[in-house]
Amino acid sequence: MATTQRVLDASEIRKQFPFFQPHPEMRSLIYLDNAATTHKPYSVIEAVSHFWAHYNANVHRGAYGVGAKASELYEGARARVAQFLNAREMAEIIFTRGTTESINLVAYAWGRSQLKPGDEIILTEMEHHANLIPWLRVAQETGAKVVVWSITDEGRLELETLKSLLSERTRMVAVTHVSNVLGTVNPVAEICRLAHEAGALCLVDGAQSVAHMPVDVQAIGCDFFAFSGHKAYGPTGIGVLYGRREVLENLPPFMTGGGMIRSVNWDRIDWAEIPMRFEAGTPPIAEAVGLHAALDFIDSLGREQIEAYEHELTQYALERLQEVPGLKLYGPQPDRAGIFAFTLEDIHPHDIATILDSRDIAIRSGMHCAHPLGDRLGQKSTARASLAVYNDTEHIDRLVEGLHYVRQVFGYAG
Ligand code: PLP
Description:
Layout: H1 10-14, E1 30-31, H2 42-55, H3 65-85, E2 93-96, H4 99-114, E3 120-124, H5 133-142, E4 145-149, H6 159-165, E5 170-176, H7 188-197, E6 201-205, H8 217-220, E7 224-228, E8 239-243, H9 245-248, E9 261-264, E10 269-271, H10 285-301, H11 303-321, E11 327-329, E12 339-344, H12 349-358, E13 361-362, E14 364-366, H13 371-377, E15 382-386, H14 393-409
Parallel strand pairs: 1-13, 3-4, 3-5, 5-6, 6-7
Antiparallel strand pairs: 2-8, 7-8, 9-10, 11-12, 12-15, 14-15
The chain binds pyridoxal-5'-phosphate.
Pyridoxal-5'-phosphate binds next to helix 4.
């Protein structure tokens, strides 16, 4: 389908990725597991390696030149993230190890200090465990209650349902921007507005959105926004928590140790200002530098262009997947992101993934860290293909051919 080529050219984009270049020891792979992690362009790998080779030093303490340069690069990455998310200021950006740690930070720092028995936290049925387990745990500890916002049979969230759940007891609405199973894109700006009207805060899990569409935290109006570098063409070990200054300023730290206090003696601790208060110990410095390069990579393609390109590719995939007899696709259609969880006849998803691997196609199978969603769908395990900007229609064609082959292997006709 030539139309997708109009917006971005995936074959040109793949040239920027060493993973997709021929290698004597590696088979070339159709990589469709981008919701788990994305590959890294040369620019990211080079930025990280350049840092290790030339600027390696700890941050915020070195009086010598390289130490100052390391700090400059680390804080430069923070400024870049602030600009990327359209935060009001860089102090609202906290570096963590990933989305999981970002949400744990909120659950512990905010939840433990603010929640009391009878308070309610609204979570949706489609949350990844990263935005579920920290809340269940903090609810158990504080006597707060987790209230479940159910999805429709199609896999969407209805705002009317949220309205019926919100009350003066609601303290937090925590919702994923894009479901890592259903591909549903949630109306997070409306959700945050309704949460605020009820006097609650709103956290958005952006793990599956930030690399695929423009994200503006002020336009969304969220209090917190979390994402991981490695799902956005950046390194593992680096994540971001955006927090609105007014909220962050009133929170105690999550972890404690070096670099997060103003002063300490045996009787008293004065916490540092934000964001340092939330970054105890040596932070992921090279990884932050890599994240900076990853955001530059995304912006070099253009976020509107990425969204448009992936949207067209998603529509193509929806059409082509329908051709496979016995394939059941989960999640809404046609308006969704490029994440496709499916089952095929009664073939176990692990078998589907293993047979596709024999044809050099990488997809994921399992529960995708969303057990309550699996219960809701009545399907514990599914196969999942997920797109990124370097995929194209040929990859979808190969996937569809591969799925026909899987059926044949299991003796299904047609
Ligand atoms: N939230 C969602 C929606 C995800 O898909 C994932 C990972 O797949 C996470 C959170 C957790 O991300 P990480 O493991 O990078 O912390």
